[in-house]
Design brief:
With about 190 residues, this protein is mostly beta strands. It has no helices and 14 strands. The strands form three sheets. Strands 2, 3, 6, 8, 9, 10 and 12 form a seven-stranded antiparallel β-sheet that branches.
Length: about 190
């Protein structure tokens, strides 16, 4: 398959004002999901973020300086839930702020309670999650989850589809392409 895939959606966490409501700069730690909406290519995308329930931890928008503006997600069992997408997701790429992010955090992508990619350790530059083929299903709700007592940081999340997958998905670039129907008789060869 096409390992690069097609970038379908990019969620930008480098500016708290990209989101409605504005991302909080004070820690939120409850396990209740909070919803935040942003636009990409004129479409609205809503993520849900939840903490781990420990008031010593929490998630928040960090604004140390321009380079370090990012979302901090902590700690174990806190997560960011992505919206359902209208395409099969083949890859999720998170970009972290360089130089400050944890080298110890363990994290992965889940659908419900099931891991759908390979767990990573550290997010010093970010992480790439290839989604297992059986989980590349339109409408799946993916969540990026922290798996140990460390913080996860990222500036952006990119969502890819794999247009070469056998699901027959046509990317938005080609949605007006003609559909050709082949009748069985057209495919019959005369072997005489």
């Amino acid at each position: 398959g096409d390992l690069e895939g097609v970038l379908e959606v990019e969620l930008d966490f480098s500016n708290k004002n990209n989101w409605s409501p504005v991302l909080p700069t004070t820690k939120k730690y409850t396990t209740t999901e909070d919803s935040y909406t942003t636009k990409y290519n004129d479409k609205n995308y809503t993520v849900k973020i939840a903490g781990d329930g420990n008031s010593n931890n929490g998630w928040y928008f960090s604004e140390n300086n321009t380079n370090l503006n990012n979302l901090v997600l902590g700690k174990q069992n806190s997560y960011l839930k992505l919206p359902a997408f209208e395409f099969p997701v083949s890859k999720i790429v998170c970009t972290s702020p360089s130089g400050t992010a944890s080298g110890k955090v363990t994290w992965n992508v889940f659908v419900g309670e099931n891991a759908v990619s390979t767990e990573l350790t550290g997010c010093t530059t970010g992480g790439t999650f290839e989604i297992s083929a059986e989980n590349q299903v339109v409408g799946n709700i993916f969540q990026i989850k922290v798996l140990n007592e460390n913080n996860l940081q990222f500036k952006k999340i990119q969502i890819y589809s794999n247009t070469s997958s056998a699901t027959g998905y046509i990317s938005s670039c080609c949605s007006d392409a003609a559909v050709v129907t082949v009748k069985p008789t057209d495919a019959t060869m005369n072997l005489n």
